[in-house]
Amino acid sequence: MTVLDSSSLIASDPEIRDGKPCFVGTRICVHDLLEYLAGGMTEGALLADFPSLQPRHVRAALAYAAQRASASSDPRPR
């Protein structure tokens, strides 16, 4: 398993959901959570549907998405 963010809430494991970034200890993908939020689901409804998640998971997903967006739009060579 590879931890993908500093809060240790998101990790990628090739054995879970084909290695997609998921919340540690769950099979819930970060992408899925972000899709639900983008589709208009409220944080409260999301947390009610996924009782293993807490508000900190939503914040971690948003931070992860922001980091990815920033990295993909950075024109500086790596």
From TrEMBL:
SUPFAM superfamilies attached to this UniProt entry: Homeodomain-like
Source species, domain of life: Bacteria
PANTHER family xrefs: SSL5025 PROTEIN, SSR2962 PROTEIN
Protein name per Swiss-Prot or TrEMBL: DUF433 domain-containing protein
